[in-house]
Amino acid sequence: MELRTAILWIHALAGGAWVAAALCFVAAGMALAAGSDDQRNFAMRAAPAIAAFGAAAAVVVLAAGVVNFFLAGAARGFRFSSEFGLILSIKSALFVGMSIALGWTLRTAVSFRTAAEPCDRDTVAKAMAGMVRANGAIAVMGAIALLLGLWLMGSA
Length: 156
Hints:
Layout lengths: L2 H29 L5 H40 L5 H33 L6 H35 L1
Helix pairs in contact: 1-2, 1-4, 2-3, 2-4, 3-4
């Protein structure tokens, strides 16, 4: 297997893992009753772990994407089509949006774990609703980015 092919697979699998983690967060968040002990336990224990997994996947996506760009550029003398540039710009903007949503989720989730006193049920319920929306946005933007990646492969 070529290095470029391996990097593409790593990039796509890390992106898919990030989207899958966000979808799992949404599914679990929607299944838990607002203000319940289960929701509070999820917010304190699982949410930070899922967000940290997403952060690790994001780092791999970025690193593999940069390496892939330079490998593809070297093979083509850094002469890319305008379509390639447009799609890469959209994917980059989606990555920034996903990273912002992930950062907010990670800060919120970690704040529950590090709070000196337990948060009340309403605070947890409101924060969980926000984290579910943020992870839903990550999943949608990530799915679009993955589909654009397929298109990008044919337009370089």
